[in-house]
Specification:
With about 180 residues, the protein is mostly helical. Helix 2 packs parallel to helix 8. It contains nine helices and no strands.
Length: about 180
Amino acid sequence: MRTNSNKTVIISLLLRLICMTFVCFLTSTFVFSSFSSQPIRAFLHIACIIVTIGLIYPPLHHLGGVDRNLADAGQIKSNMLKGLYLGLAANSPFILTGVLLILSKLGLFTTEFYGIYKLINAIYYAFNSSILPTDDTILTVGWLPVLASVGMLFLVPIITMFAYIIGYYRFLYKEAVFYKKKA
């Protein structure tokens, strides 16, 4: 296994996620200061997710293609879950905040972490602002919104897994979407 390239991919994904956190936070703050309706929040959440997918998809798709070539040459063993592992490793700081949120809900960690959680996971800021009320403390919020918010944190590893698998099987969406005339 090429650990050096895996570390590079993990660091690259983590930096991309951190950049997206800042961009989504600034965008959400700007939009929420002008508009705060539910349709605007839903649109903003979808836009942040689409841009995040656009940032994390290409390197994993490329890595899947490279690993397919190496597996065909017999240099490495194929592992379809490699994209999931890389996504979990890159997203681990954000997933850790989800664990801390659950511990806060149980009363085992500080209840002031509620606001910090929303800021750290700004990619999902619009979603979290919709389902997690700002006036309440974490102890008064129901379990379903907390678990839904923490569940959203696993969206990035799922995307990285599918991007790797799609790259591994050399599927190019451009070829599927655009019609080509047969010669």
